[in-house]
Design goal:
Helix content is 93%, strand content 0%. The chain is an all-alpha fold. The radius of gyration is 64 Å and the shape is rod-shaped.
Amino acid sequence: MPAVSIDINMFWQIINFFILVFIFNKYFKAPLMKLMDTRKEKIAAEFSEAQKNNEDAALKNKEAQKILKDAKDEATKIVQLAEKKADERKEIIISEATVQRDKMLKSAELEIQKMKHAAKKELEVEMNQLAVTLAEKIIKENLNSDLEAALADKFIDEVGGVK
């Protein structure tokens, strides 16, 4: 027996195979290739759209980061400006308070001087009255005569009248 024997069944199987390949190539290859190409194009389009969306997302992320950084910078500037204004306002308030304190101290000093002066004058008047009264008593006790008393009254009236 030969190593490879070709009998009639095998011959018909080979012919059937080639007929199937021919029919497949003639009727099914083009539609299947068209379907495969359509799918390939769709996948390629979706892939390129995904890449484009990915690039857009990256760009928008960078823009968002830039906007966020700008907002933080602006917030920092606003805070620094507010601190500067607060410091300036504090200095103004302190200087106004110092000026008002100085005015109040000067006013108090003037009032004290006025009160001292008034007290001094009042004390002077009282001392003059006491001196006149004391002198009058002493002179009246020491003087016995009417003439001397009249002279003393005249003297007292003159001294008492000179204030």
